[in-house]
Write a structure and sequence with these properties.
This protein has about 425 residues and is an alpha+beta fold. The protein has nine helices and 27 strands. It has two domains: about 110 residues, SH3 type barrels, CATH 2.30.30; about 300 residues, Alpha-Beta Complex (Fumarylacetoacetate hydrolase, domain 2).
Length: about 425
């Protein structure tokens, strides 16, 4: 399914919401991401769209008749495109709806942002080839990538119940670990707690059980994307992951950003999908002309660290790395198609993680496991602190944006999570 540009992408569009026209905003009128919010702890949750520093309530604006995001996400791409066009027209400078809609706006800082939808199932893929290669070298220097990596989109089923929205705080997880000199494993707080820089794809339309989704229609089933931090207890993972893969090392917390950037909003930032010379081409069921022409999405990604000492000193967070989703080895369409090729039924709100997105250079690593070579080389921060893995009080902030000449920059907002002491 090929995505195309329309009037909502016009870089000359401006909004009567002044903050949406400010340089560097994540939420100009060309973005219009969807989320779920409430005006207070006792208020019902509503569906909103981010515009500048405000939230437009879609039901108050008489654009929808539901407060159920999953119900909205199940609509066809054509209906969602029409809704996006109506929102864009109503928020544009000179719109006749300005007077009516001004009362439908809230300031983002004054509302509670929630998980954007109900997440029924969560699958985490492993599309970051640079991450897979670097981590593989720590354990298999001569053959870092397993033989199946370049043939099949690898993934595992994660835990949906512990996914929370940006601002999540969680205690350091406990688990069984066994050091090289330990006679037996012990239960203790993880000492090698890590983050993983990922993007998440939220499913829109589902598919019936037993009916695979082919590449030509795959992106019709993707509603949009969020930032995802797949927190990982590396020492717990090392002891438990064979033979069935991650378990307690991954299921204690995952954090996503609150605003779903739609696939339509990402249309100006598509790029061709190619494989390096000498690598196998995808099997036919994972190939299509549209995927080759524009399967990649050019999303810039950053990781920032804020320590307790930084907060105490009134110092802002420090950037640890920057990478791009263009380096992913598998595309959104390929993840969706492979997930359903055996007849698996996806449902509105299901989350597909991209896996850690690292770049080719060491400083582009999307995890501390890579940045510190498995904990062997500590990072020295600007304030003199050092880190091999996360300490109590540390907060990780993920950010992302798309930028291309001739189009308006759009962003994903903040994905923030903080580690608390173990209980």
């Amino acid at each position: 399914m090929k995505t195309s540009l329309n009037a909502t992408h016009d870089p000359h569009l401006r909004s009567w919401v002044a903050s949406a026209n400010e340089a560097g905003t994540d939420f100009p009128i060309q973005n219009l991401p969807f989320g779920t919010y409430s005006r207070g702890p006792r208020h019902d949750r509503r569906i909103g769209v981010a515009i500048g520093d405000r939230v437009l309530d879609l039901r108050m604006a008489k654009l929808i008749d539901t407060d159920d995001m999953n119900e909205l996400m199940a609509q066809s791409p054509a209906k969602m495109s029409a809704l996006r066009a109506a929102i864009s027209q109503g928020l544009a400078e000179g719109s006749a709806r300005q007077a009516e809609w001004e009362g439908c706006l809230s300031r983002q800082y004054a509302v509670n942002l929630h998980l954007p939808c109900r997440i029924g199932d969560y699958t985490d893929f492993y599309t970051g080839i640079h991450h897979a290669t670097t981590v593989g070298k720590l354990f298999r220097p001569d053959a870092p990538l397993l033989p199946n990596y370049k043939w099949v989109p690898i993934g595992y089923h994660g835990r949906a119940s512990s996914i929370a929205v940006s601002g999540q705080q969680f205690p350091r997880p406990l688990g069984q670990t066994k050091g090289p000199n330990d006679e037996a494993p012990v239960l203790r707080p993880s000492q090698r707690l890590d983050y993983e820089l990922e993007l998440g794809v939220l499913v829109g339309q589902g598919n019936a059980m037993g009916e695979p989704v082919d590449m030509a229609q795959a992106e019709a089933h993707a509603f949009g994307m969020v930032l995802l931090n797949d927190w990982s207890a590396r020492d717990v993972q090392a002891w438990e992951y064979q033979p069935l893969g991650p378990f307690l090392a991954k299921n204690f917390a995952s954090t996503i950003s609150p605003w779903i950037v739609t696939m339509e909003a990402l249309a100006p930032f598509r790029a061709p999908f190619t494989r390096p010379e000498g690598d196998p081409q995808p099997l036919p069921y994972l190939d299509s002309p549209a995927n080759r022409e524009q399967g990649n999405i050019d999303v810039e990604l950053e990781v920032w660290l804020e320590t307790q000492a930084m907060r105490d000193a009134g110092v802002g967070p420090e950037r640890l790395s920057q990478s791009s989703f263009r380096d992913a080895y598998w595309t959104v369409a390929q993840m969706l198609t492979h997930h359903t090729v055996n007849g698996c039924n996806l449902q509105p709100g299901d989350l597909l993680g991209s896996g850690t997105q690292s770049g080719a250079r060491p400083e582009q690593a999307g995890s501390l496991l890579e940045l510190t070579s498995g904990g062997k080389n500590a990072l020295t921060l600007a304030n003199g602190e050092t880190r091999t893995f996360l300490q109590d009080g540390d907060a990780i902030i993920l950010s992302a944006w798309c930028e291309r000449e001739g189009f308006t920059r759009i962003g994903f907002g903040e994905c923030r999570g903080q580690v608390l002491p173990a209980r």
